[in-house]
Write a structure and sequence with these properties.
2 domains, Alpha-Beta Plaits, RNA binding (chains A, B), 5 helices, ten-stranded mixed sheet, isomerase (chains A, B), PsdUridine_synth_TruA_C (chains A, B), globular, alpha+beta, homodimer, about 30% strand
């Protein structure tokens, strides 16, 4: 008998070699599986994430599931037990017992990524692990206008780094918001979509920054999408600015369905 | 011939063993002196800070001075040269050529320290190096009321950790502000004073948190100050929440002279 747990977690990615288990590397999945192994005395309890995050990428709302053997541990006890075994760069914020139809990856309805870009002239020591950095002129209005071209269902081949193993490059972007955080002197990009290809958010951010800086025409992304060629965007924004912000397992709320207005 | 440079800097203290030079330890002073040695080919150029910061303590506006030998390098060149040699956890934000009457420590008119306390239920992975942490109930109004008892000229023996070498424990606190940052879910403490004893800010914060939590009467600090006994406050808030925010070399602006109303 096993019990399936769905857990929501945040992690500071800067000291991890990404989410996915790799031998002899410090990874998020490996850290959790080590704890579950100690707790359960099992050989291995597989942790399934909503998806991978790369080395240096952070999570505010990553979701995992796993099947824990033996007598059911209440959810509030499970979260305390696991948090007590986690290093300080991982925290579980929520735990639910779910039925076996729930799958952290296959049950996804959408994902929300956030990307933070610091505009400080010099790289701010307090943000070096937590933001990207762009100290050239930026027109936020141009980026907002350009972002509309990303909305809806498209083949995003031009925004997929090699290394992804997925053949089908069609995804739907539901929502894009680009805003200046005056207090932090940052630009905050939010993207909600059905899913994202390998490095897709970081490549979209790089392209939008080029538009904001005037190096690309405002509506160039239409052409880039149509080209289906990764060579159209050679830049990838740094891992340090990227956050897996939320995973949707219910329908995307209407307020985030900008694509409905297309 | 030497030229005296005054430089303002920020650093993320979490990977330093404090400001002050120590053999075989990574320190802020040591890092800067190493760079100056390489630049100048001198045996040693002494870096004088406005004061020390402990291991894990941060700076937004630390100030140093040093005397650089040979032909004068313009200030804008000096800052570029030094920043290019710094690790990413140190940044120089300002550089001025000053006359030999200026001394980073002896010319001080006052110092501003900030202390950040995260109220998150669990320790937030993104704040573990950058805030203190207090997850019990807090009454900000009580702390604000209590802080008034710190204003003015007092013997702060009760707030001085052993380890300080200074005999005279009289200091003047000009300004205290305690505010909730709703967005960050933090309490931010600001203290401006003529100077601060060893660990004084962290001990004051610990005492104020006890008052905010109701473990001490609101006006207990009057009694604590009068007692001149460190045993009156046994706690010291964590280093991770403390920032040397600004050093004043001119008279403290009137808006920060709350002590004038006493």
């Amino acid at each position: 008998m096993t019990t399936r747990y769905k857990m929501t977690m945040a992690y500071d990615g800067h000291l991890f070699h990404g989410f996915q288990l790799q031998p002899d590397q410090r990874t998020v999945q490996g850290t959790i599986e080590d704890a579950l192994k100690k707790m359960s005395k099992e050989k291995r309890i597989i942790v399934q994430g909503s998806g991978r995050t790369d080395a240096g990428v952070h999570a505010i709302g990553q979701v995992i599931h796993f099947d824990y053997p033996g007598k059911t541990i209440p959810a509030n006890r499970m979260i305390l037990a696991l948090n007590s075994m986690m290093p300080t760069d991982i925290i579980f914020n929520n735990c639910e017992i779910v039925n076996e139809n729930f799958h952290a990856r296959y049950s996804i309805k959408g994902k929300w990524y956030r990307y933070r870009v610091s505009l400080d002239h010099f790289v701010n020591p307090f943000k070096r692990f937590y933001t990207g950095h762009f100290s050239y002129a930026l027109d936020v209005g141009k980026m907002q206008e350009a972002a509309k071209d990303l909305l809806g269902k498209h083949d995003f081949t031009s925004f997929a780094a090699s290394g992804g193993q997925i053949e089908d490059k069609v995804r739907t972007i539901y929502y894009v918001n680009i805003a200046k955080d005056e207090k932090e002197n940052e630009i905050v990009f939010d993207f909600i979509g059905s899913g994202f290809l390998y490095n897709m958010v970081r490549i979209m951010v790089a392209a939008l920054l080029e538009i904001g800086n005037g190096r690309r025409p405002v509506h160039d992304l239409k052409r880039v999408i149509a080209a289906k060629d990764r060579q159209e965007v050679r830049q990838t924004a740094q891992a340090s600015g990227l956050y897996l912000y939320h995973v949707f397992y219910d329908e995307i709320p209407q307020k985030y369905r900008q694509d409905r207005h297309l």
